[in-house]
């Protein structure tokens, strides 16, 4: 006598089993997603040696001096400010206009 009729009449079996599966399955899913999160954090903690050198305060002065030497070599007197396109402007069309202005000015 325990058949489909009993399953339809008993609301505990009708709604309880899927809910139990959802809760148990959700806990396994959350465990997997949280494991991925912690693995990604471990990877981020490992820094490249060059990046670690940039973050080290003692080596920071050396890096600043190197950048200063690079800037001294560049000719900043002939620098021109070129405006980029606005978000509502077509970038290719604007670049073409800039090229035409540069060729006329030269």
TrEMBL record:
Topology in the lipid bilayer: Single-pass membrane protein
GO BP annotations listed: mitochondrial respiratory chain complex IV assembly
Disordered, as annotated region: 82-106
Keyword Nucleotidyltransferase: no
Signal peptide region: none
Family matches, as InterPro entries: Cyt_c_Oxase_assmbl_COX16
UniProt keyword terms in alphabetical order: Membrane, Mitochondrion, Mitochondrion inner membrane, Transmembrane, Transmembrane helix
Membrane-spanning parts: 12-30
Record Pfam families: COX16 (PF14138)
Composition bias, Basic and acidic residues: 82-99
GO cellular component annotations of the record: mitochondrial inner membrane
Compartment(s) where it occurs, according to its Swiss-Prot or TrEMBL record: Mitochondrion inner membrane
Similarity annotation: Belongs to the COX16 family.
Protein name as catalogued: Cytochrome c oxidase assembly protein COX16 homolog, mitochondrial
Protein's organism: Oryzias latipes (Japanese rice fish)
């Amino acid at each position: 006598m325990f058949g489909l009729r009993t399953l339809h009449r008993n609301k505990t079996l009708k709604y309880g089993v899927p809910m139990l599966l959802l809760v148990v399955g959700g806990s396994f899913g959350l465990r997997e997603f949280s494991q991925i999160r912690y693995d990604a954090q471990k990877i981020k903690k490992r820094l490249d040696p060059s990046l670690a050198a940039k973050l080290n305060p003692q080596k920071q002065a050396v890096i600043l001096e190197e950048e200063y030497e690079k800037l001294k070599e560049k000719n900043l007197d002939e620098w021109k400010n070129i405006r980029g396109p606005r978000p509502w402007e077509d970038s290719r069309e604007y670049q073409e206009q800039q090229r035409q202005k540069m060729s006329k000015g030269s």
